[in-house]
């Protein structure tokens, strides 16, 4: 077993990732399975019915990606598992960022575990020379605003996660509104919005595919994925300019496939150039009763103003209902300052259900 670090009575043991997926269910995968169990239990406590519980086998491919390092530590107090600590290290050239996450099981909160675990993660980030520490928090819909984002758009409640971030010196850079569209109800507002987008987007046409991406589109798709890191609203959060090519897309698609995810991509083609200039993704784990996730959505900056966001979202919604009949709702997240995309969501019938906070701490 890897060497554990002990903070008072709190022991943090590096999570060993088995060499093969077959090892996940063997003795060597015991801590890995425990870490995924923590992830699932924390998500259920945070997200309720929207929580997507994954098996260790489904999670396994996400720990092996070549495009970032994934590190995890299982936390025990007096021999009992109380949570896990996670660190994601981007591998872009010159990156100074690191993503940190502390997950403490609900029955063990209020004992200072999160504070000690976060300090531990910050020390590990420092060992890697990372000076920009970033983290996400999840919050139920609340009318009590505890901290307002530095963008001036949106706030998160004064709850345990917020207090931990503030006390550790993190600034709330952005608030993301997580919205839900109920697919069991009539979607009377979608067709008029789609027709309006069709009229406004003359010179463009809608295309779609189920992953893997057709060879004819993979280079354009890779370019748009790279622009997610530069064109999407980010406030003062430091973002690496990501480098994507066809090989990176194929690596991501393999992770999707190996983990049981089905992905529908809808895009807008600029007819004159033959290039894709906008896209959205719908993701499903094919589990009845669980939401379909609207993942990345982007219109390239130089092609905005033609209702392409509405074009790709409305068309892909119609296809998604057929492709993913197991899903009874779509969940999506958008920065509160991203009014154009939020306006599209609101016009389609999405309603707010919870909020996410993006936090950042810069080490001098």
UniProtKB/TrEMBL annotation:
N-acetyltransferase domain ranges (all copies): 30-188
Q: Which InterPro entries match?
A: Acyl_CoA_acyltransferase, GNAT_dom
The lineage's top-level taxon is Bacteria
Pfam families (UniProt xref):
Acetyltransf_1
Q: What is this protein called?
A: GNAT family N-acetyltransferase
Q: Which organism is it from?
A: Microbacterium aoyamense
